[in-house]
Predict the 3D structure of the following.
Amino acid sequence: LTHSHVGFQPKSAFLIQVGHTTMGIFSLILACGRWLELKLDGKKRALAGFISVAALFQIGIILMFYREPLY
């Protein structure tokens, strides 16, 4: 997932890779939480819904401060 063959990456390339990896992990959490929200009942359903909304919120926070350098 974060493997790279480039020896000494520039700092900006590393930060872009870390940002994309983090957003990808939160998207997986979001998808799993949403799927569980559709499959479960009761309090478990509410918890899964909260987790999916929290993951979406975290992606939004990351994107608020996300900047790609203009090469």
Observations:
- Helices lie at 11-39, 42-64.
- The radius of gyration is 16 Å.
- Residues 13-19+29-64 form one domain.
- The first helix runs from residue 11 to 39.
